[in-house]
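Input/output pair, single chain:
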Amino acid sequence: MGNNVWKDTWLITVRNIKTTLRNPFSFIPNLMISAFFLLVYEGGLSGISQLPTFEGANYLAFILPVSIVSAAIGGAGGAGQGIVKDIENGFFSRLLLTPASRLAIVLGPIIAGMLQLFIQTLLIIGIGFLLGLEVKTGFGGILFVLLIAIGWGLAFAGYSAGVALRTKNAQAAQAGTFIFFPLIFLSTTFVPYELIEAQWLKVAATINPTTYIFESMRTALIDGWIFWDLMQGVIAIVIACAITITFAAVSAKKAVSRG
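Output:
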C-alpha cells in the first residue's frame, strides 16, 4: 500500500508539473513581481542600512527574504488552482473512480507547487547574487534559506489545497490566498523590529509567523549560525504545516465523501 501511495503521488506530481510547464504564464508573472520587488526595495530603501540598528548589514540580504516569501505565496498557491481546474474539468471526479490513493490526489499538486517554488527561489537568489548579495554562512546558509522557503511553501500549499477542496471554485480559492499578503506587511518587512514605532504593528509582528520566517532567513544571510534565531523559523513552519496540512487532509476527506 505504501509503495502505491508513493507511486501515485509521483505520477500525479509529474502530471501537475507538466501542466504548469504547458502554461508558463501561470508562474512567470509571480516570479517577475517578486524580482521586481527585490529590485525596487534594494534601489529605493538600501540607504536605511546606514542606520546604527543595521550595524552595517547589507540591505539586499535583509530584503531578500521578503521577495522569497512573496514568491512562496504566489507559487504555492498554484496547488489550489491546479486542484480547482481538475475539479472543474472533471478530472478530479475521474481520479476518484480509479484505485489511485486519495492521499496522493492531494499530495501531488502540493508537491508540484513546492517544486515550482524551489525553482523560483533559486532564480530569485541568483538575481540577488547578480545585485551583489553577500551571505555570511556561505553555501550552507543558501541551503538553509531554500529549506525555509520550501517549508513555508508547503504550509501555504496545504492551505491553498484545503481552500480549493472546500470551495471547488477558482475565484474563491484565489481570494482565499489573499489572506497571506497582509501577513507580509504586518511584519518586519522593511526595517528591524526595533525600528517599528507603531505599537499595534509591533504586536502584529510579534504574533505573525512571517516575522519568524524573515528573521530566520536573515540570521543565516547576515548574522551567521545562531541556533535559536534560526530555529524560530523552523518552529513556525512546523506549526503552520501541521495546521494547514491537517486542514487539507480534512477537506480532501469531505471532498472524496461527496464525490
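The longest helix spans residues 227-258. The two ends are 22 Å apart (CA to CA).
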